[in-house]
Design a protein that fits this description.
alpha/beta, 13 helices, five-stranded parallel sheet, 7 strands, 276 residues
Length: 276
């Protein structure tokens, strides 16, 4: 799923009409595979999709060594002699480049093979050495807006507003993590069940709430998913019934505090019982 805003899409389209040989794109929350392919299309177009090269470790690990980049450089030099087409080397944000390997990458940047472009993706600045960053054109994208992301998720997956927001919150506002949730049917079902449990919880009596917390929410991840779902339902209810905002504010504060405390490793049981 592509969650770039229309403004970001426009900026990227304009930029890739005259691309630099090396570009660093930073976006909080990272990039899904579909969003990576969107960037590839903007630079290469359909005609050149076969010329996409993802930098990777020769042993299938998520970090790149000096030897990996030397092999890549040799391959690019060899293919450039056959010449002609534009090629793209993509370094995904979940792939780490060792410090020594970054110096090797810098040498490639200094004398880039003909027709080769590099895109480095990152979820934050400061991941690469300053010497690497200074050699790249920098594009900063904003983290997807929660409402816009939920609207896109709802439209693409035929889900309700509350279900879409629950999935986005569970993903922590990360396109890559959202894609991982959607690729796992069990995990997707688990998040949506948490939303259903949260709805029942808000409409239950105190005794029923205690039973629900005892039976289903003893694990940290279960608790966080449940609290995310509660926040979604409370937000939607407040937006639709603004006169209830003041009445529900104390509960919202309790849920937000419990969520923050549990993420900071506080006792799950104590935090959840504070909601009753």
């Amino acid at each position: 799923m592509i969650l770039f805003s229309e403004k970001d899409k426009l900026n990227l389209s304009r930029f890739f009409k005259d691309p630099a040989h090396a570009t660093l794109i930073v976006r909080p929350g990272g990039f899904s595979v579909e969003e990576e392919l969107f960037l590839v299309d903007k630079l290469l177009g359909d005609k050149y999709k076969n010329n996409l090269i993802k930098a990777q470790n020769s042993e299938g690990k998520n970090y790149i060594k000096v030897e990996d980049l030397r092999e890549l450089s040799a391959s690019l030099d060899l293919r450039s002699k056959k010449g002609g087409e534009r090629r793209l080397v993509l370094i995904p944000e979940n792939v780490r480049i060792e410090s020594k390997a970054q110096n090797t990458l810098l040498k490639i940047f200094e004398e880039p093979p003909e027709g080769v472009f590099f895109i480095l993706l990152s979820s934050r600045e400061g991941v690469f050495l300053p010497t690497i960053s200074s050699r790249c054109s920098l594009i900063k994208l904003k983290k997807p807006n929660e409402d816009d992301a939920a609207s896109e998720i709802s439209k693409n997956l035929n889900l309700t507003e509350s279900q879409a927001k629950a999935l986005w919150l569970q993903a922590g506002g990360s396109s890559r993590d959202l894609a991982n949730i959607l690729a796992d049917e069990n995990l997707k079902k688990y998040v949506l069940e948490s939303l259903s449990d949260a709805k029942k919880f808000l409409g239950s009596k105190d005794y029923e709430k205690l039973v629900a917390l005892k039976n289903r929410l003893s694990k940290r991840e279960d608790a966080l998913s449940f609290l995310n779902a509660l926040l979604v339902i409370l937000e939607i209810f407040i937006n639709k019934n603004t006169t209830s905002a003041l009445k529900l504010k104390p509960l919202v504060d309790k849920v937000e505090f419990a969520h923050k405390a549990i993420k900071a490793n506080a006792n799950v049981r104590i935090q959840l019982l504070s909601l009753v």
